[in-house]
Every structure is written in C-alpha cells, then in structure tokens.
Specification:
The chain contains 16 helices and 23 strands. It is α+β, with helices and mostly antiparallel strands. Homodimer.
Length: about 525
C-alpha cells in the first residue's frame, strides 16, 4: 500500500499549513517557542474558558515536558529558566478543575469521554472533594450502568497527557431520548452555578439548546461535528491505541480465505476521503486538517439498517440485528448476476456472485416462504453496506483520492461490513482504492455465532444500544481535542467538562468507544 504505511515505515513527507506541521504524527515541539501540536481541555464557562491548556503525547510538548526541560537545561540563562517556569505556572493556573468530560449529542446516543487522572498528588488527594472521588470510583470500577449502556474497557486509552496531566480516557454513552433527564439533573444540581456555558457538538447541541437554556439555565457553545470528527481522527491516530497503531486495513480483501487484518500508520494522511457512517452517512474530502469539504451523503445508513431489521425480523437492538445477519445468507434474498446470466457477465467484468438486484428474489412467493429472518437481516446489511461502498467509490474517483477511511458506530462489532467495504473498494477499483478503518470504530469481535454468544452474556448485565454517528469516538468518539499553538496564534480545540453526578451515572452507561473515538467538541479561542 503506497499511502497507508505499515508501522515500520518512516520518512513520509510532511504537510505544512500556515507554517505549522500538519501530519497525524506531529514532530517534537520547538524548545523555545511553544510551537507544535498538543491536546488540551478548556472549561465551558468562567474565566478559564478563554485560556488554553496545551499538553501532548509521544514527544508532543506538554507541561510535564517543560518541567523536565527546565531541569535538563538548568545551565541555561536565568531569563530562559524564568520563562519556562512562567509557562508551567500559567498552564497550571488555567487548568480547568476536575472532573473533565467531553460531550457529543447524537441522533441516537449521547457520548461522553471521561479523563481519569493518574498522577494525583497527596496534596490534591487531600483537597479533593468527596463527590469527585465518588465519581471517579464509580465510573472506573464499573463496566455496566443500569439498563442504558456499557463501558468498553478494552478500548480504554491509557497513559495520555492532557493539559499537562497524565491519565486514562474512558468513554461513556446513554440514549439521546434520556437527554431530558440529564438536563433536569443539571437543573436539580444547579450546574449553572458552576459553569454557565457548556461546549457540545452533534445535532442535539441544536435540538436541545433551548431546553438547556430554559430548564437548566445553561448556554451551549455549539461546535461543528464534522470539524470535531476530523480533529478527533487526527488525535486518535496520533496517540495510537495503547502502543499499537489505531488504523488498519485488510490484506487480500478479495480472497476470503487469505484476508488478513493488518495495522498501518497514516504518516502522510492527506488527501483522504472520510466516510462517517452513523444513523445516516456523510462523506468528506479532507485535504488538510483545516481544509475539507462535504462531498455528499446518504440517508441510508446505520439507522436504516436497524430500522429495516426491526420491521423485517422483529429484533430490538443493533446487536440482535448483527447476530441474526451473521447467521443468514443474503443470496437467498438478493438476485445475483449468475441468477440472470447463468454465470459471470464477462463482457463487463461482472462476477456471477455480484448482486444484480437487492431483495430481487422477494418477488417470488415461493422464495418469500422459504427464507429466514436471518437471511433478511443479512440481505439488509449487505444492501446498506454495498450502497455506502458504491457511493464512497464514486466520490473517491471524482475527487481523485486513493485513501478512503471509514468511521462511525455502524462499524461497531460489524466485521461483515468492514470486510465487505474493503472488498468493494479493492475489487471495483482494481486495487487502486484502499479502505482503512479505526480500532475505536469497530470492536475486535468477529460477528459469528461464537462471538455473539459472549455478547449475550454481556447483555445480561448491561443494556445494548443502537449505532450512532462517529465520534467517532471517533474517533471519537469520540470527544477529543487538539490544541494547536504557534508564536502568533493559539487555536483551542477542546472538550468541555461537566459536573457528572453519581446518581446520574447509575442510570447511564460508559463505553470506551472514540467509536464515536471520534466526534470531538471544539472551541476556537
């Protein structure tokens, strides 16, 4: 693969915009000027909302690094040491108080990311109020919360540096239809006395804006979810997945027996086509972290798959729909090329196994009487996935982009679709297009009978939730933030934090998704 390099690849050219290094893997920050790319968290109200906290990971400048730098250069001039101390002290001063949360209000799910500090000093431990301790204990010691959701421990991001603090990222979600309970809790706990403004992304930031204002006396700082999605993707790939690459592709996708999942690093990421599959689908052409356009989209996405499966099979959840699809045979429902031509249509290079008409066999009463609900679920999944793949391929060809990155919670526990997308991109482009995926958009679970048996065990202790747009954790997801600093300009892309009460956590779930890694809340300052 030319553009998606394996972890051993080094030396890919870097992109620069406005004098700032623009790669997924930023270089070491300049020692003297505060340049470089880091991550930070800013409060959604009060004095701290206009200040930036810069941190970093894997060589990115952060406050701990500055402290180490101060020691390493103790032979420097007094003025230089003084400047370094002022920068460290300034960062501490403007650091928002714990707890730190990020928020994305999607059409189906509300996604939160919780930062668990792991470097709390004895002094901080003594000063910390009991409510914060209770929140941390409750969120990190449980994997399921009531009937509303799950915390995916295996997707937790560990030992990150944010705003100069070292800690772990946990991912939390609850159904959007319970947002009113969240807002009421905010009113009952008098959130407005703590923070008058909350930063949020997703469609719900607009939908619930008036409710936040009138019920809880809170203003929402609305942030564009596509901006957040791209920033989250960049951040997640830059920090990696606990020492492993975040990105992967399928080698030999056209050969089921030899199809192998392979990790890769996006050293030279641009341009890329970003396909965000949530309830619906948005397709972006991304030329740099600050330069992108929405090419097109489709209303036929994860919400369509689940809705049709509920109608056709009587299932209730995304997991149930995928479990049924894993056991079904779509060729009992779809009419193939070989059903029409008796084999391949060689003149136009169409294989006999290609779908000629989705649900084409359902015109026959005899066929309708012989199919199973599992067949219908599988055909629905294949239909939706093929449609997304076809649109993505046409967009990639029109935009002359060879790298296609698929994200979104539709791909969660959905290896059927990821492999089908990889096959479609590779086959129809004759190997020119590569489909890339993110670990935090799809759990490493094969959708087959054995793996779904484990899923059933999990369901006994926690509720299951339908798919929703990428956070991506995304990517999360994901809600992440990146702080970009230059000598002349400081741009904060941050996640907001809210006071998350323990009684609320009892009813709503956590999940280590950036599945969603990746919508990030962002704020420009």
């Amino acid at each position: 693969m030319e553009n998606a390099k394996t972890p051993e690849h080094n030396g890919a050219p870097s992109h620069y915009t406005n004098g700032l290094l623009n790669g997924f893997h930023p270089a070491q920050a300049e020692k003297s000027g505060g340049g470089g790319v880091g991550v930070g968290i800013a409060a959604g109200g009060g004095e701290d909302s206009d200040s930036n906290c810069s941190g970093g990971h894997n060589g990115i400048e952060n406050f701990h690094h500055l402290q180490h730098q101060d020691v390493a250069h103790n032979n420097g001039s007094p003025a230089k040491r003084c400047r370094l101390r002022r920068r460290v002290d300034s960062g501490r001063k403007h650091r928002p108080p714990f707890p730190w949360f990020g928020m994305d209000i999607g059409g189906t799910l509300v996604k939160l990311v919780y930062f668990e500090p792991k470097d709390i000093t004895a002094e901080e431990e003594q000063e910390e109020v009991e409510s914060l301790k209770s929140i941390r204990r409750y969120l990190t010691s449980n994997v399921a919360y009531g009937n509303a959701g799950i915390r995916d421990v295996h997707l937790e991001l560990k030992n990150l540096i944010m705003c100069g603090r070292k800690g772990n990222l946990h991912f939390i979600r609850f159904p959007t239809h319970d947002m009113h309970s969240f807002i009421q809790m905010g009113r009952d706990k008098n959130f407005s006395s703590l923070h008058t403004t909350l930063c949020a992304t997703g469609g719900g930031a607009y939908k619930f804006e008036e409710d936040f204002r009138t019920v809880a006396n809170l203003e929402l700082q609305k942030l564009d979810e596509l901006d957040c999605l791209i920033q989250g993707l960049l951040y997640v790939d830059s920090v990696g997945f606990n020492g492993h690459p975040e990105c992967y592709f399928f080698q030999n996708p056209s050969d089921p027996e030899n199809c192998v999942k392979m990790p890769c690093c996006l050293d030279n990421p641009f341009p890329m086509l970003l396909v965000n599959i949530g309830s619906g689908v948005s397709i972006l052409a991304v030329y740099s972290k600050d330069n992108y356009k929405r090419v097109t989209g489709t209303s036929l996405g994860g919400g369509t798959f689940l809705g049709l499966c509920c109608l056709l099979t009587g299932c209730e959840t995304f997991e149930e729909a995928l479990e049924m699809a894993a056991k079904g045979d779509s060729t009992n429902v779809d009419k193939l090329v070989k059903d029409i031509y008796g084999g391949d249509y060689e003149r136009f290079g169409l294989q006999g196994s290609a779908v000629a008409s989705s649900f084409g066999h359902m015109m026959s009463k005899e066929r309708r009487d012989s199919i199973s609900k599992e067949d219908l679920a599988r055909a629905t999944l294949v239909t939706i996935t093929n449609n997304i793949g076809s649109i993505a391929r046409m967009c990639a060809v029109n935009e002359k982009i060879e790298r296609v990155v698929f994200v979104g919670n539709f791909l969660r526990i959905n290896t059927v679709s990821t492999k089908l997308l990889a096959y479609a991109m590779d086959f129809w482009s004759k190997g020119q297009l590569k489909a890339l995926f993110l670990e935090h958009e799809e759990q490493e679970v094969d959708v087959d009978a054995a793996s779904m048996a484990q899923e059933k065990k999990r369901k006994k202790t926690a509720g299951v939730l339908p798919p929703d747009g990428g956070w991506g954790w995304m990517i999360v997801a994901g809600c992440f933030m990146v702080t970009v600093c230059t000598r002349a300009v400081t741009r904060c892309i941050s996640i907001f934090f809210v006071e998350f009460q323990t009684h609320f956590a009892r009813d709503y779930s956590g999940t280590a998704w950036i599945h969603s890694l990746v919508d990030c809340t962002t704020m420009l300052c």
